[in-house]
Amino acid sequence: MEFFEISEEVKELGRKAMEKVLPYFKKIDEITEYNQLKMLSAFQQARVSESLFAASTGYGYDDRGREALDKIFAYVMDTEDALVRHNFASGTHTLTVALFGVLRPGDTMLSVTGLPYDTLQGVIGIGKDYSGSLKDFGINYEQLDLLQDGTVDYDGMKKAMRPDTRMIYIQRSRGYSLRPTLLNEDIRKIYELAKSIAPDCIVMLDNCYGEFVEKTAPGQFVDLMAGSLIKNPGGGIAPTGGYIAGRADLIEKCAYRLTTPGTGKEIGCTLGQSRELFMGAFSAPHVTGEALKTAVFAASVFSMLGFDVTPHYDEPRGDIIQAIMLGNEERLIKFCQGIQAASPIDSFVTPEPWDMPGYDSKVIMAAGAFTLGSSIELSADAPLREPYAVWMQGGLNFHSGKMAVLLAAEKMKHLVNI
Ligand SMILES: *Cc1c(COP(=O)(O)O)cnc(C)c1O
Asked: Residue 190 and residue 111: Cα distance in Å, rounded?
């Protein structure tokens, strides 16, 4: 480690942590290899060639790059069709297009994973009362909370569902909570139960952070899913965008909402963005594996330091997020400063806690990313409140992710017993 100053104690800690995680890295490699070859095969089946990278303008009729990218995502997600666009402005926007695309006034949407991700609440009309929310359009929202241990309440679902429940909404990732992330197996169970009660309901998945983490793709057991291209499926290369994947009839409705009823997927110029979306998709399985390794290594290091971590290094994972309970403010700050110090961008910046709009406590964030807000690149966020947990995710390559974790440990060395 001649380029970074790491004490002997922390180096030794890193060596021990590596020994522990090696069997789990082997499993990650198996998943990565499987998904990477599936992606390669998807590229070949879509007959990708350089001409597909060409920029279209105006209406973008017959943009073959756009069409091939949709095919690739449908293939890797195990769905009939997909809608992959650079002009989805965020993950929330993508999920919003999917929800508005398929729900109609009078429909009921039932979330079975508790309160949805923060930014979706305003879209649905929970708490906030924005004009143009689903609620404003007469779409009912119902919520089934998770059980005490953070798992899905299947019995409660049987009671909460009716034969005409229109949508079952699932959020896979823990987001910024401490509940466990759902695995594809959990999603399959929800799907089967939902269809046994309401065969026509749409099972929709917020798949953010979950892509390529497991060998199976959730396409077989959801009707519709959506995610962000500045997370896993953009491979750290896509500069913006999102994807929706699912049943062909539903994808058509989403496309009608994104552009216009009638034109749907047939229009939308790509302005030269396709090449980066192709490159990102191609790298996505591998990069997701690197982020997973970074998370597992962090879990190993910080549990050896005596902190509660979730998930544990040896637990199966459904997303790339690692939470570490650091217990006090000072450690959160040092942790984030360590992560920042190992970033390729803005390594010289020292993150400080600030009053972020929409939060009731100060928040500290570490992010030194090529793409603003990208969280497939290594980043860490922590609200300064009980239980003083930091959420860390991403890492384009494990070697620099590993150094970031070690620097975080080094920075708080005087605050823990090493
Ligand atoms: C990131 C995320 C979103 C929203 O994506 P943005 O790009 O931040 O709008 C929604 N749900 C989950 C679970 C997420 O992790």
From this structure: 11
